[in-house]
Amino acid sequence: MSLVFLKNLFFRSSSSTSSPSSISPRSQTSNKAHCADSEIERSPLLSPPSPPTSTYSTTSTDLEAARPPSPTPSSTFTFPRIDARLISDATIGLSDGLTVPFALTAGLSALGDTRVVIYGGLAELVAGAISMGLGGWLGAKSELASYKATETETAARIAAAPATLHEELTALFEPYSIPPSTLTPLTTHLLTSPALLPFLMRIEHCLPPPSPHRALASAITIASAYFLGGLLPLVPYFFVEEVERGLWVSVAVMAVALWVFGWVKTGVCGGGNWERVKGGVEMVVVGGVAAGAAMGLVRAFGAGE
């Protein structure tokens, strides 16, 4: 018993004073876990914020690259400008061509013969186109002669009394409320300028220089418009045998043509929708009255025989 007691006493003390190397692996693992936990507790919960880094540098090159490209101008087709005098000549030719031949063919249809309507209508178309074209030619020549006469008279007035032109120029600019500090140098410059004669012709007399080809263009435009407009009421008679049927087809065609012509003519002059409709109705009424008068006159002469 004493030996067992001594053995336990000595061996227990040696185990309690043993070196750290004799510690069991389980105890080492627990110690390491405890140290790791202590390190986690000592570490801050949030890491210190890192300094901001720039992800995009706003340099001039980058701004130019980011700028949207400017759109390239697309080439657009523009119609050539038509002279207002040509439009006026075409209107005169169509206005007469859509009414006079229509009235003539309607009157000749009362005779009851299709050939009479066709031959008489063609003869009237040719004669009317030549007459209208000649009228346009003579009118343009008269305008040119009037311009030359006014230009000669104005040039003689400038050469004869240049001192009186200062008062005339001042009176000419008076409606525009030009201050005297600007008006005096302006009139002085115009009195010594070679452009004084064209200025007076355009501003004082309201006469722009006419084109040398104005007479020929006017004659061709009026004659062509008259012939094309007068051909419309004559076309139905080429395709029918009965005169009465051709008359009603011609009336229907001309009613539409006259209304469209009046609508377009009023629209070109700047009229609104109601004015265009009114202009078309007026053309239909004028053409209808002319055709009815011609037809009634022919029938009245035929009844008298």
Tags for this model:
305 residues, mainly alpha, 12 helices, 71% helix
Describe the structure.
- The chain is mainly alpha-helical and 305 residues long.
- It has a domain at 84-146 and 213-304.
- 71% of the residues lie in helices and 0% in strands.
- It has helices at residues 2-16, 25-42, 60-66, 84-97, 100-108, 114-160, 165-173, 180-191, 196-204, 214-231, 243-268, 273-304.
- Residues 1-7, 13-49, 51-66 and 73-79 have low confidence and may be disordered.
Write the layout of secondary structure elements.
Elements: H1 2-16, H2 25-42, H3 60-66, H4 84-97, H5 100-108, H6 114-160, H7 165-173, H8 180-191, H9 196-204, H10 214-231, H11 243-268, H12 273-304
Strand content: under 5%
Question: What does the average pLDDT come to?
Answer: 75
Q: State Rg.
A: 52 Å
Q: Any low-confidence stretches, pLDDT <50, length ≥5? A: 1-7, 13-49, 51-66, 73-79
